[in-house]
Design goal:
The protein is mostly beta strands. It has a single domain, classed as Integrase, DNA-binding domain (Double Stranded RNA Binding Domain, 2-Layer Sandwich), CATH 3.30.160. Helix content is 9%, strand content 50%. The chain contains one helix and four strands, in the order αββββ. It has a four-stranded antiparallel beta sheet with strand order 1-2-3-4, with no helix packed on it. The longest helix has 5 residues. The two termini are 22 Å apart.
Length: 58
Amino acid sequence: MKLSDAAVRNAKANGKVQKLSDGGGLCLHVTATGSKLWRLAYRFEGKQKFLSFGVYPC
């Protein structure tokens, strides 16, 4: 399921890291302090890696 802007804006910190998936490896990490960070999970040579794109809102 794709993330909507409203779903991202309403995501709140709950004391631990939350991962809201958008599909295809793109996800939004909501940290314990409330920061929202875009990350992309991918595999390279059989190992999982993460690419960070920045904070929300841009």
